[in-house]
Each structure stands twice: as C-alpha cells, then as structure tokens.
Design goal:
With 415 residues, this protein is an alpha+beta fold. The protein folds into two domains: 250 residues, FAD/NAD(P)-binding domain, CATH 3.50.50; 151 residues, no CATH class. The chain is built from twelve helices and 20 strands. Strands 1, 2, 6, 7, 8, 9 and 20 form a seven-stranded mixed sheet that branches. It has a six-stranded antiparallel barrel with strand order 11-14-13-12-15-16. Helix 8 packs across helix 11 and helix 10 packs across helix 11. The longest helix has 21 residues. The two termini are 17 Å apart.
Length: 415
C-alpha cells in the first residue's frame, strides 16, 4: 500500500509515540526508520539505563528548558510525566524513581523501553518499514501530500517529522530532518551541541583522565562574570572535563564560545567547608603532621592524581615538610582548593553531544498541536525542534509529549 493517513519519519522516542498514538486513534499509520530497527538512540540514553522522565512539578520541570520552556506548556498539559509513567508501566515497563526525581526502568535496561514501545506500536496497528531514507516530501498547494523514499512515492494525509537532532549520528540522528524541514520553508536555528563535554587549555588535565570528583561546586565565568553555578560530579578527560555539572552548564558555555567570549570554570573542591574552616583544617593538619612531606599530607584532602597538580600550582615542593610551609604558601593552597580554575577553549563535536540545541524554530510550530504553521498537514516533534534541557529525564519527556501530541493531532486531521 502506498497511501496512508499518517506517515511518521523517524523511529525514536518521539516517532514511536507519535506513530502509536496516531494508529490508536484510527489512522492508517506508516513509520519509516532509516536504521535496521527503531529506537537505536533510545537504547543508549541514560548510559544505557534510559532516564525516561522526572517527577519534578511542571513549573520546575519547564524551568530546565530555559527560554524554550513556555513552548512546551501546552504539550505538557496534555501529556506529562505522570502520563508517560502510567503509559510505560501499562505496556510492561516497571519504573523506579531515583535521586533528583529521575525515573528509570526498574530493570535498568533502556532496551526494555525500546522493546516495549516497538511492540506497543505494532499492537496499535503501526506498520514499520526499516532501512528507509526519506529523500524529500511531496508538497502541493501549501500542504504536504506524502514523501519520497528510496525513489518511491508514498502518499499521506499528514506527515510527522521526528528524525531527531544531529548528535550520535551512528544511531541514525544525522540531521536529515533539518534538510526536510528547510525544504518545506521552515527556519532552522543553527544546530549546535548541547549537553556536551568541554575542552580546556591546561595540559595537565591529560594526566587526570579518568578521575571523577564528587560533591564539588563548579562556577562558570563568562568574560570574568559568574553566570552559573552547579553542584555535583565532574569527570576529567584527556581533552578536558565532562560529568553532570559540566554537561548541565555546557549549553550556555557553547553559546558563549560561539560568540567569541572568554570562559573559565572555577572548581571548589571543598564546598562543605568555608574558607575559615578549611584554613583551620590546614593549620591542624600541618601541626599534627609537621614532620611529613606535603605530598603525603595532601593525600588527606585530595585524590592522588590531583596532589602533584595542586603542589605545582601553588608553588610548594612535594618533599617540603608540612612544618616548613609558609603562611603565604598556605593561603595560596587554601585559595586553590576553593577555586581551582580551568580555561575553556572549546567543546567536543556535535556527534558526541547527548542532545542537539537548535533545530526547527518553535515560532513556526503551533504548540497546541505540533503542526507546522508553514505547511498544512506537517507536524514536527522531538529533538528536531529548537527545544532542549539539561540532564535529568527532561529531554525524553519533551520527546514523548511532543510525539504524543503530534500523533494525535495528525490523526485527527487525516481522518
């Protein structure tokens, strides 16, 4: 059959949800996926555990999307975290809520979410064709009439684009949707990496690769002004830094770097101690362990990999006895422990980003339906939209919600 009510392009979280909801509403629905099977990117989310949503209240939830939050208010009013949780449990995916309100499948396996959603879509009546690359859309008289796939024409009353962004291209997210949407007349906000590791100038970080620091405070300075602060875990890589605090702050940092602004991060290694209390701790340690070398004394304050970096930065020989440390040296050490600075010189490529910022401008999408305001019968959902949040299950919820709304709305128009 080459004629459908709804064709959904892209078999990720948004696409699977859109297709299943459209078919469940009675629309003859075709799901086109370019990879050998749907849900490839969904399988690797949350480090393979799939952080499906978050139990935060709606207003707090929307805050995580920054300026794009208001656009999602309508979608979240129709399909929010409690709806997605009930849906997943109803199709056989028990869930657990963990620290920070993050929701995961009880099994800890993202594959279980993929398998359950693929099976659900099939039961709903969705026909899925894999290894299908959409060459273009058929546009006539201001509306979409179908798609061209591998040289074949497929007609449809409505088309849902849910092709994802440009991160993790090995999963199929290669930016195809930007091309299709632009050809239909949509403005594309320049895609760029979000939730992405950062590259630093300081060469010593290569020797710290693999080290993770828990419970630190990271402050972000743009052109010398503090503009963000995060608390949690940071990880050193050969090229720079990653980890939850870095990924969460990275979106604004990427924008600052693209605007040719200077960016530094400041790491408070001992945020639980005020400068006064930390100074007292240093005085006590130096008095009690005065006959020990500083490289040994500092092991009580720092991971082994950081000791040499610290001593070099503050100008204290590692073999100097603690009793021989001067007051000025102690002050420099105190300052470094509370404000270790790194210069951000770049960010990793978009293919390494967890999500993509930019995409189809939300100014051209009806937030009540996810319908294009440029092309009748065209709906856009998921990461293809210029909508993104930090880590914690927020981005997947946006994919589910916009996919749900696009699928239902497309079916209502098509039938």
């Amino acid at each position: 059959m080459n004629t459908w009510d709804v064709i959904v392009v892209g078999g990720g979280a948004a696409g699977l949800m859109a297709a299943g909801e459209a078919a469940g509403a009675g629309a003859r629905t075709l799901l086109l996926e370019k990879m050998p099977r749907p849900g490839r990117k969904l399988r690797i989310t949350g480090k393979g555990r799939c952080n499906v949503t978050n139990v935060a209240e709606r207003d707090a939830f929307l805050d995580h999307f920054g300026k794009s939050g208001p656009f999602l208010r309508q979608a979240f009013a129709r399909c929010f975290s409690d709806d997605v949780m009930a849906f997943l449990e109803s199709i056989g995916v028990p869930l657990v809520t963990e620290r920070g309100g993050r929701v995961f499948p009880e099994s800890g396996k993202a594959q279980d979410v993929v398998d359950a959603m693929v099976s659900w879509a099939k039961r709903q009546g969705v026909v899925t064709h894999v290894r299908q690359t959409v060459d273009g859309m058929i546009l006539e008289s201001g509306g979409v009439r179908g798609v061209r796939v591998n040289g074949e024409t497929l007609l449809a009353g409505c088309v849902v684009l849910a092709t994802g962004g440009a991160s993790y291209p090995g999963t199929g997210s290669t930016g195809d949707g930007y091309r299709l949407a632009a050809a239909a007349g949509h403005d594309i906000v320049p895609p760029r990496p979000a939730l992405v590791p950062l590259e630093v100038t300081e060469s010593f970080v290569r020797g710290l690769a693999g080290l993770s620091l828990r419970n630190i405070r990271m402050s972000v300075f743009v052109n010398g002004c503090c503009c963000d602060e995060q608390f949690g875990e940071l990880a050193f890589m050969e090229y720079g830094v990653s980890g939850p605090v870095v990924l969460t702050a990275s979106g604004a940092i990427v924008d600052a770097l693209r605007a040719k602004q200077s960016v530094e991060i400041e790491i408070d290694l001992k945020p639980a101690l005020s400068e006064e209390k930390l100074n007292a701790r240093l005085l006590r340690d130096f008095a009690e362990r005065g006959r020990e070398p500083m490289h040994s004394v500092l092991r009580g304050l720092l991971p082994k990999q950081l000791v040499k970096v610290c001593l070099t930065a503050v100008g204290i020989p590692g073999k100097r006895l603690a009793s021989g440390v001067t007051g000025d040296q102690r002050k420099r050490l105190l300052s470094w422990l509370k404000a270790m600075r790194l210069t951000i010189q770049g960010y990793r490529p978009i293919k390494e980003a967890i999500v993509t910022a930019g995409g189809v401008s939300t100014q051209e999408i009806d937030p009540r339906t996810m319908a294009s305001t440029r092309v009748e019968g065209l709906y856009i959902a998921g990461e293809l939209l210029d909508v993104h949040a930090d880590t914690g299950g927020y981005n997947l919820q946006a994919a589910f919600s916009t996919g749900w709304l696009a699928g239902r709305s497309a079916a209502a128009l098509a039938i």
